[in-house]
Amino acid sequence: MQLVVLGSGGFLPIPRAGCHCRICKSARQNGWPIKRHSPAIYLKEIKGLFDTPEDINDTLNFNQIDVVENIFYTHWHPDHTLGFRVVEILQENEFFKNKKKPINVYIPAYDYNNLKKFIPGLWYFETKGYITIKKLTETGVRIKGVQVKPLRLRGVTFSAYLLQQDKKKILLCPDHAKELPLKDEFREADLLIMNMGYFENNLKGAKQLPFRHRIRQFTSFDKDNLRIIKALKPRLTVFNHIEDKYNRTNTDLKKLEKVYRHFNVRFSVDGMKIKI
Ligand SMILES: [Zn+2]
Ligand SMILES: [Zn+2]
To answer: How far is the CA of 97 from the centre of ligand 1 (A)?
Structure first.
């Protein structure tokens, strides 16, 4: 399976307007790979997009991806959905017009009503014939030999996804990894993608994280990401959803890859390609 990390950023893109932290300043001056788009992942085999953040049109362009046949949502939060109008952009492409089928939009059944409440525009686009909205049951769906199965996170209606093709297994948890249930079937995946949590030590001299980042709902790198890696033993872990507030430069992240090399971890950048 081949994946592209379209956007490696977190719930706010880097640089973000009005922010003068060292990460945003550097991203403004130097561009990629310090600059990061919002979180989205593309799986080539099924021409499948996981989430549609607001800058998804840019990232598809940047990565020269012309075709999307399937979209899967992890949850309704704005940083994962607000680029949903990309379906109109793709389907109104003159070059392909009249040759296109509706894009399949998959929503886990337990999250369907939330998407309908917060992203009603999707249902408008269904009436225009751009998309077909499908409820995903817990067994998931098989597309071109790839099984895509939603995994409900604990205590919420958010999802991770398990992708399986032949003996290859990818666990995709691009946000809220803190609530990932540690089930046997997730163990020893060829690849785990998960959101990078905040650091308990937010580096000396940096502004402390707001208290709300330390409360229950936010993933901690030290307490959650490492705990999950130790429990599930993936062959490779790639971090996405990287926030400027967590105050790590790309050089810091490279150092961390060395510190945790026994776990085989990588911190993604926009456009990172992974072949499993
Ligand atoms: Zn998010
Ligand atoms: Zn910033």
So the answer is: 33
